[in-house]
Amino acid sequence: MNPLIAKETKVLIVDDQVLAKGYMKYSLEELGFSDITYVDKVHLALNKIRHQRYDLIVCSYNLKHEQDGYYFYDEINRNGELPLSTAFVFISADTTADLVQSIVELQPDDFLAKPFTVKELDRRLSRILGRKRALQSVYWCIEKKHFPKALSEVELFLSKPKNSEFFPLALKIKGEILQSCGHYPQAKVFYQAILNVQKFTWAQLGLVKTFLHLNEDEAAEKLVLRLAFKPESQLAAYDLLMSLQIKHGDFDTALECVLMASEISPRNIRRHKTVLDLSRITHDYHTQFEAAKKIVKFAKNSIHDMPEHYLNVARAGIDYAMTSDDEQTQTLVKQANEYIRQFRQAFPKAEMQDQINVINARLMYLADEKDNAKSLLEQLDNEHWENETIEALLDKAKAFHEIGLHSRSQEMLLEIVRRCAESNQSSEIFLRYAEQEQVEKSRIKQSSKELNNSAVQRFQQGDIDNALHTFSDAFTLMPKNPSIALNLLQVITIKRLHGDDTYQKTIRRCVRTVETGPLNDEQESRYTKIRELLDDIV
User: Fold this and answer.
1) For the segment 449-462, what is each residue's pLDDT rounded down to a tens digit?
2) CATH number (domain holding residue 428)
3) C-alpha–C-alpha distance, residues 418 and 406, integer Å
4) Cα–Cα distance measured from residue 239 to residue 241, given in angstroms and rounded to the nearest whole number
5) pLDDT tens-digit series, residues 493-533
6) Do 425 and 453 fall into the same domain?
7) Counting Cβ atoms within 10 Å, is residue 351 exposed (0-12), middle (13-18) or buried (19+)?
8) Do residues 176 and 98 share a domain?
């Protein structure tokens, strides 16, 4: 270790194990480090980095207090609280596949497996700190968002042969700066030139992003599909594929992509939130419910933990129950109540009674206590919406729609859309979902719970025209429900509309839902007869 670098390096150690801290202190002092700060909790580490700049942060991946190192790193990195010129190193005795995949996704400067020797620590830190120092002027420009100046600095860096050991990293940074400057045609040429020499994964991913910005979607898809089969680029490839499908409005495929990414790296809460939003816009109530539960699971005891996560599970469970049979509804209601209990236990001082009352009103509606639900909702403070979160307003809009107060529901949905359009915090997917809710609830007055029963009743009474209309509405809100899809297919064939071009897309969607969902024996028999009529078009 260069003694001058060690002396000038300000170090923060985040570890809650006394022996580990003792060994790290000994090792760093052996290497000449003297300006060292130790903390054992994440909130203390956050306080330190928000008041002091550090050159090196060494963090245990397996912190037990509050949250682990994964969420700490993710938090400061996403919030821009980890300067590019600061080196971040994880240490852990765990080297399982899940941990390795998490490290691949987070991309810290290094990862040290315990136990390690002073010699190994010396070798790793010398390399990392040397790299940070060599590129310091570039990093500072990027941190200040002076991208044209950063581009000049990286070009100067690349012109000096003495920096050759850092050229691959400098080239990667150059590509990122070109994109940050909006120089996409230039970035495309740059990445293609790099790939003609060596097939760096970062250059391929950079080229995909450039293609997307240049609307060269076919080229982007072709390249990113190849990257999705490589372990080192799978996660980034699935995320890019998701972005591409969202751009094309194919939310079902986008959801499939983000679900595959979530299986590979299950601890990424932001990705679960994307699953939640995409499952809502595709009316995939089961996936929505599971995503909401995973957000609670992985955020628990971390700085990401918050009361609304628990309420969102209850809300998602109710949405799911609205589309389910009686037996499943009872199970979902129990789970919704369990998450409310967990919320009260985890956040006993949280003042969210109005939101709990809305959830209770929706539970009453599920139990066919519509009048009681209406009475409870009328007791709410419906004037001061500025203090309501978007999720709380959305749940209230659903509750008012379910009990038949449609104009009140539309007012709230309009407010949600307005807020989403004006806020940088709301995702594009959520805005589109809110707009979709506004349109669907304006057109379809019945709730999901009422639609299928109403359609079946009309069908049994011989009112085929109205049955067709109601089953169509039910399938709009419940496109993953095989029973509704089958009923709609049956009415379409009875009306002899299966040869009508305007119904071909609906028929294909129904067939896909029926063939991927569970059917009982009676439904299987019905579908076999219907399918014989459809074989010429499907």
Assistant:
1) 888 788 888 888 88
2) 1.25.40
3) 18
4) 5
5) 888 876 777 788 898 899 999 998 888 899 999 999 888 87
6) no
7) exposed
8) no
